[in-house]
């Protein structure tokens, strides 16, 4: 089920953020906004990546 979410948007940029800190904050964001479905969590994670991080992930997953 889709969850309507409001609040600050987290963005992960590998040149500016540490992954472990970002991931912990993202987990708290999921709890605070009631995001429980894995598909919704995945969508939020992918949306929160900077363009550079998204391209890197895409290249690693689909070379």
From TrEMBL:
It comes from the Eukaryota. This is Uncharacterized protein.
């Amino acid at each position: 089920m889709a969850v309507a979410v409001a609040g600050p948007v987290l963005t992960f940029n590998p040149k500016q953020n540490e992954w472990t800190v970002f991931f912990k904050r993202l987990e708290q964001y999921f709890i605070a906004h009631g995001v429980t479905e894995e598909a919704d969590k995945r969508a939020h994670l992918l949306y929160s990546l900077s363009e550079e991080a998204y391209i890197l992930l895409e290249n690693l997953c689909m070379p």
